[in-house]
Amino acid sequence: MNSGISIVWFKQDLRLQDNAALQAASESNGQLLLLRFIEPSLINDPHYDERHWRFIQQSVQDLNVRLAPQHLKVLLIHDEVIPFFSKLHKRLGIGAIYSHEETGLRITCKRDQAVTRFCEEHGIKWKEFQTNGITRGLQDRKQWAKLWHEHMLAPQIKTSLESVTPVDPTEISDLIPPEETVRDNDSFQRGGESEAHGLLQSFLQQRHHRYMTHISKPEASRASCSRLSAHLAWGNLSIRQVYQATLVAREKGGSAFQLRNFESRLHWHCHFIQKFEMEDRIELENFNRGFDEFPVKFNPAYFEAWSEGKTGFPLVDACMRCLKSTGYVNFRMRSMLISFWCHHLLQPWKPAALHLAKLFLDFEPGIHYGQIQMQSARTGINTIRIYNPVKQSQEHDPKGAFSKRWIPELEGFPENFIHEPWRLTDMERTLYGLEDLKYPAPIIDIEASGKRAREVLWSWMERPEVKKEATRILKKHTLPGRKRME
Ligand SMILES: Cc1cc2nc3c(=O)[nH]c(=O)nc-3n(C[C@H](O)[C@H](O)[C@H](O)COP(=O)(O)OP(=O)(O)OC[C@H]3O[C@@H](n4cnc5c(N)ncnc54)[C@H](O)[C@@H]3O)c2cc1C
């Protein structure tokens, strides 16, 4: 039996149901304190943005509405973890901390190592629970898929908080730094368990019917994809809740084709995070070390054009501007943004990874860095995809509606030129009344840059050091016998 209070340290698990840490803490003997930190060190980290703190704040607000009948409240703590735990331990004595395992960036990994040492020094029990079927300490993938399925099909954890005794907040009110509220912004998805369940139901009941038809379209995907990514990244829902609800929807007559494809993406979600759990150096280094000498040189002018949505390629620019304003674009458009930066502009992946992490409301380190490495062709084992933004625009935004929506300069631009505005002659500009067009000329020749990228990348793939690393990666991260990694 522990003496001292019990703490639930909410991390990327901002929900009440299917929350093993919360349920275990509710069965402990101590008075209960519920916390979610917003750490200054993460506020200052280049991966994060105000949009992420807003989502967390909204998620905590939603939890507190649900917890009010039990006279419980999650406190949002604007402080570093160890100094706060230290003050709390001196005041009330901490018996145990309950949380979920986090597969995070180097900065949160180091923080967790320091928390482990702090707990050991002070005789505090820190009980961590598995997250979404991600297994710690695996050396290969022989057992992983089986373990994952078992986890996904196991009963969900029901939380009951009726018998818990909360810590009296007045006992610690002087320890809590003033809250720094982030103002709501309706252009972004709102955080919270209630919001997440509503979205899941609308997807499973109606929106999934055109899932695969619209998945690559920048505009239509906003309604036909689940849009659950931010809720999954911050833990408003567990993957198990979504997976099991999807199986039920399929049994009740939902479209089997669409829902099976959706289920595989839930699996990919965890597959990518498992990869990061086993090799988190890919936040900082090339996945395939054979690419360490690959010739790329950062060009600040290119970065400004790409990151500001001013490359002169409407679909690239529209995606970047849309991301800035809403925090979301679909998978294909994310891949195209990286392909344009890394292949057409021949630029290093790191600045792009940081810039997009800040913009993605659903920033999830394991998926993000895995995808960045794949799309920038730094794994040496995946098909290299070099997307031509003109062709993507013709195929997925044929009338240019998405581009026009996000690039006001192109309002009224003739439809047949929207994919390649530079093709409009001076005479045609006059004809359409577009003499004062403020939209930039393209920063590169897209045919030439695509050709160069193909030549450079494919010849690099033949290098023995790339092939050697590819064998190592396949052995560690795929099932025996597989030739490719998802
Ligand atoms: C360069 C790049 C960076 C990315 N960074 C992130 C990130 O930081 N966070 C993130 O959640 N996704 C990331 N993705 C994957 C994918 O683009 C998003 O998960 C998806 O667009 C979210 O939309 P949705 O919730 O409507 O997805 P749906 O299509 O409805 O899929 C359901 C869920 O499955 C998971 N999922 C879907 N596609 C993928 C995929 N290709 N790989 C892994 N999991 C997937 C997500 O959790 C998603 O919410 C990235 C993709 C690329 C190309």
Written account of the structure:
42% of the residues are buried. It is globular and about 80 Å long. It has a five-stranded parallel sheet with strand order 3-2-1-4-5, with helices on both faces. It has three domains: 5-129, HUPs (Rossmann fold, 3-Layer(aba) Sandwich), CATH 3.40.50; 193-276, Serine Threonine Protein Phosphatase 5, Tetratricopeptide repeat (Alpha Horseshoe), CATH 1.25.40; 289-477, DNA Cyclobutane Dipyrimidine Photolyase, subunit A, domain 3 (Orthogonal Bundle), CATH 1.10.579. With 486 residues, the protein is mostly helical. α11 (239-251) packs antiparallel against α12 and α12 packs across α17. The protein has helices at 20-26, 40-43, 50-67, 81-92, 106-122, 144-153, 193-205, 211-214, 221-224, 229-233, 239-251, 256-278, 300-307, 314-326, 331-344, 349-359, 365-375, 389-396, 401-406, 426-432, 446-461, 464-477; strands at 5-10, 32-37, 74-77, 94-100, 125-129. The model has no long low-confidence stretch (mean pLDDT 96). It has 22 helices and five strands. The two termini are 45 Å apart. Helices cover 49% and strands 6% of the residues. Flavin-adenine dinucleotide (FAD) is lined by residues 225-229, 232-233, 262, 265-266, 268-269, 272, 330-331, 334-335, 338, 360, 362-364, 367-368, 371-372, 375.
